[in-house]
Amino acid sequence: MPLPAPRTILLRAGRSVLYLAGIFLFAAAVNWYQAPATQNIAPIHQLKLASLSGEKNQIVITGGKKTVIYFFAPWCAVCKVSMDALNFFEDSKRVQAIAVGLDYENVEELNPFQTKVNVPVYAGSHELQRRFMVDRFPAVYILNNDGSVAHVIVGYTSRFGIWIRTLL
Description:
Number of strands: 7
Distance between the termini: 46 Å
Helix content: 25-40%
Order of helices and strands: HEEEHEHEHEEH
Number of helices: 5
Number of domains: 2
Strand order of the largest sheet: 2-1-5-4-3-6-7
CATH topology of the largest domain: Glutaredoxin
CATH architecture of the largest domain: 3-Layer(aba) Sandwich
CATH superfamily of the largest domain: Glutaredoxin
């Protein structure tokens, strides 16, 4: 069987690139539509969160690093699958990552998530959920060095999806 002509190969490759670009644009449009309107969130310089053992912690956001906040719920199946994406940032010099459990009845429900990731896991509050306008899970907030919201991802995302947004 003879090889296809170079023109045919280029046309097929071009068509494939257009399909991929269309899928990417569709996914970006869905994410934009689902993400909450974050322009009303004032820059966050620190967060006061409780560890799963009850210790109060102060997380500094403006420490020269971008911050990834992964909001999850213990009943969320997608959260369980995608949460390990945070392990990518475990020893990062440019990004700090934390996981915050919301929508739970008892803090013990969050304990199994501590073994899924190598980043700190905290217990969030209803106030924090309202402040960040989290109404779907998982919700990933990426904050700039100045504490402003750079990106919001709602639903499943991969390590690459989070990582690429920390570069933008």
